[in-house]
TrEMBL record:
Enzyme Commission no: 2.4.1.143
A GO term from the CC aspect: Golgi membrane
Naturally occurring in which organism (per UniProt): Apostasia shenzhenica
Catalysed reaction, written as an equation: an N(4)-{beta-D-GlcNAc-(1->2)-alpha-D-Man-(1->3)-[alpha-D-Man-(1->6)]-beta-D-Man-(1->4)-beta-D-GlcNAc-(1->4)-beta-D-GlcNAc}-L-asparaginyl-[protein] + UDP-N-acetyl-alpha-D-glucosamine = N(4)-{beta-D-GlcNAc-(1->2)-alpha-D-Man-(1->3)-[beta-D-GlcNAc-(1->2)-alpha-D-Man-(1->6)]-beta-D-Man-(1->4)-beta-D-GlcNAc-(1->4)-beta-D-GlcNAc}-L-asparaginyl-[protein] + UDP + H(+)
Upper lineage: Eukaryota, Viridiplantae, Streptophyta, Embryophyta, Tracheophyta
Cofactor(s) essential for the protein: Mn(2+)
Name under which the protein is recorded: Alpha-1,6-mannosyl-glycoprotein 2-beta-N-acetylglucosaminyltransferase
C-alpha cells in the first residue's frame, strides 16, 4: 500500500513537471534555431564581399552576388540585335589569348593589364613600345579592348610578342552601326532640333543637345569593357586580384609593373581603406612630389588598378553610372558613383609617377573624320634612372591628401548623355553576363556559325 502511494505521488509530480519541461525544451530549441538562422543571415549579408585574393570566386558565388546587387525588377534589359560584322567580332572575343607558346605560364599573383583603345593608331604605337620595355611584362596577360573595329588598330595589336595578349571588341559600339541604334538611326534628332517641330527621335540632355554616337561611345565602351573583363571572360572570371587599366595615350614607365606589385602588396597594410592603387597622380600634369612617402589621394584616371571586391561595389551602382548626364566615364565616377559609397574613396600611389598622359588629340577628336585632330603621335620622354627601376620603399609612411579639388555636390554633369536609349543600353551591359533576358542576342549569334 505504501509503495502504491509513493508511485501515485511520483506520477502526480511527474505530470506536474512535464508541461514545464516541455516549455523549457521548446524555448531552448527556438533559441537554437534563432542563433543558427542569425548566423546564416549574417553570412548571407557579408558573403559577396568575403573574397580571397588567392583564389577567385566560383561561378555560383558570382551569381549569388549579382542576384543581390542587381535586384532591379522594374528594368528589362534590352540589347540591340547584332549585325553580321558585330557577330564576327563577338566570335573573335571567344578566341584564346595569343603568345601562349612564348609565355606558357603566368606568374603567381600577377596583375592583369587592360588596355582600352579607340582609333588613334599613332598613340597606340607609342604605348605598345613603352609596354615592351616594362620589367616583368612577360609575367602577365595584356587584354586589349577595342571600341568597335579599326583595321590599323587591330594590326598593331596583332604584332605584340612580349606577353600573352587577349583581344576583345565591343560588338555594341556605335561605330559598327551606320543606319540604326546604337549608331545613327533614321529620324534621330540632330544637334538642338525641337522634336515637337521636327518630329524626330531622341531625348535631349540637360543643355538641349541630342546624342552624338561617336561621343556616347566613350562611356559605352568603358562600361561594356568593365563588365566583360570582370564577369564575361573565362580567362579572367576566377581572377580576384587587381587589374590595371590604361589607355592608348598613356606612356608606361619601365618600372610600372614592379611598382604596381609593390603598391598592391602594401595597400592592405599601409592604406587598408584605399579602394585602388595608381601609377600616376590624379593631376595628369604632375610628375609626383618626389617625397620619401607614399601618397593617398583621390583615384586618378591614368594607370588605376583595383580588385573584384571594388568592382562589385561599382557594379552595384550601375543605375547611378548609367543615368548621370555626362558622356565621360571618369567624371561620372568622380561626380556620382564614388560619392554614393558614403565613404572617402582613396587610392595609394608612389611619390613619383610611373605613367604619363601624352598627346593633344582627345578621343572625340581622333574619331572625327571631318575635323580630325592632327597629331603624328611623336612623344619624347626623358626618364631619370630612378624611373627605370622600382622606386617605392616599403618602409615609407603614407601622406594623405584629405582635401582635394573635385566635383561638388549638386554638379549635374557636362551633358551628352540624355538619350533614354543610351541609358538603357548602358544599364543592360550590367546585366549582360548575369541575366537570361540580356543574353537573347547570344541565341542570334549561335545561328551564324
Amino acid at each position: 500500500m505504501a509503495f502504491h502511494k509513493r508511485s501515485r505521488f511520483k506520477d502526480v509530480g511527474f505530470r506536474r513537471l512535464l508541461p514545464l519541461a516541455l516549455i523549457i525544451l521548446s524555448v531552448a530549441l527556438a533559441l537554437f534555431l534563432l542563433i543558427i538562422t542569425g548566423a546564416v543571415s549574417r553570412a548571407s549579408v557579408n558573403f559577396p564581399y568575403q573574397e580571397s585574393e588567392k583564389e577567385g570566386p566560383s561561378s555560383s558565388m558570382l551569381e549569388m552576388t549579382d542576384h543581390i546587387l542587381l535586384n532591379m525588377e522594374e528594368f528589362n534589359p534590352k540589347l540591340p540585335k547584332l549585325n553580321d560584322f558585330a557577330i564576327s567580332l563577338e566570335q573573335r572575343n571567344r578566341l584564346p589569348p595569343r603568345n601562349i607558346n612564348l609565355f606558357p605560364n603566368l606568374a603567381e599573383n600577377h596583375v592583369k593589364i587592360v588596355l582600352y583603345v579607340h582609333n588613334r593608331p599613332q598613340y597606340l604605337q607609342v604605348v605598345i613600345k613603352s609596354l615592351a620595355e616594362v620589367e616583368g611584362i612577360g609575367e602577365t596577360m595584356l587584354i586589349v579592348s577595342h571600341d568597335g573595329y579599326f583595321s590599323e588598330m587591330d594590326e598593331i595589336v596583332q604584332g605584340i610578342r612580349f606577353c600573352q595578349v587577349k583581344q576583345i571588341f565591343s560588338p555594341y559600339s556605335p561605330h559598327l552601326y551606320s543606319d540604326r541604334f546604337p549608331g545613327v538611326s533614321k529620324g534621330d534628332c540632330l544637334e538642338k532640333e525641337d522634336p515637337s517641330v521636327q518630329n524626330c527621335n531622341g531625348n535631349a540632355d540637360q543643355y538641349g543637345n541630342y546624342r552624338s554616337p561617336r561621343i556616347v561611345s566613350l562611356k559605352h565602351h568603358w562600361w561594356w569593357m568593365m563588365n566583360t573583363v570582370w564577369d564575361g571572360l573565362p580567362e579572367l572570371r576566377r581572377h580576384s586580384g587587381h587589374m590595371l587599366f590604361i589607355e592608348e595615350d598613356h606612356f608606361i614607365y619601365p618600372n610600372a609593373y614592379r611598382n604596381l606589385q609593390l603598391l598592391t602588396a602594401l595597400k592592405p597594410m599601409k592604406c587598408p581603406d584605399c579602394f585602388a592603387v595608381n601609377l600616376a597622380p590624379s593631376d595628369v600634369k604632375s610628375k609626383g612630389e618626389g617625397w620619401e612617402k607614399l601618397i593617398a589621394e583621390k583615384i586618378g584616371n591614368v594607370g588605376y588598378a583595383f580588385n573584384r571586391t571594388v568592382w562589385r561595389k561599382i557594379h552595384a551602382k550601375a543605375k547611378e553610372f548609367c543615368w548621370f548626364d555626362d558622356y565621360n566615364w571618369d567624371i561620372t565616377m568622380w561626380a556620382t558613383v564614388y560619392p554614393s559609397f558614403r565613404t572617402p574613396v582613396f587610392t595609394l600611389r608612389g611619390p613619383r609617377t610611373s605613367a604619363t598622359h601624352f598627346g593633344k588629340c582627345g578621343l572625340h577628336q581622333g574619331q572625327d573624320k571631318i575635323k580630325g585632330c592632327i597629331d603624328n603621335g611623336e612623344a619624347k620622354f626623358e626618364l631619370d634612372k630612378i624611373d627605370t627601376v622600382p622606386n617605392i620603399n616599403m618602409d615609407w609612411p603614407v601622406f594623405v591628401f584629405k582635401k582635394q579639388h573635385g566635383y561638388q555636390p549638386g554638379f549635374r554633369g557636362w551633358g551628352g548623355w540624355g538619350d533614354q536609349r543610351d541609358r538603357e543600353l548602358c544599364l543592360s551591359f550590367a546585366y549582360i553576363y548575369h541575366s537570361p533576358q540580356a543574353s537573347t542576342d547570344k541565341k542570334y549569334v549561335s545561328k551564324h556559325p
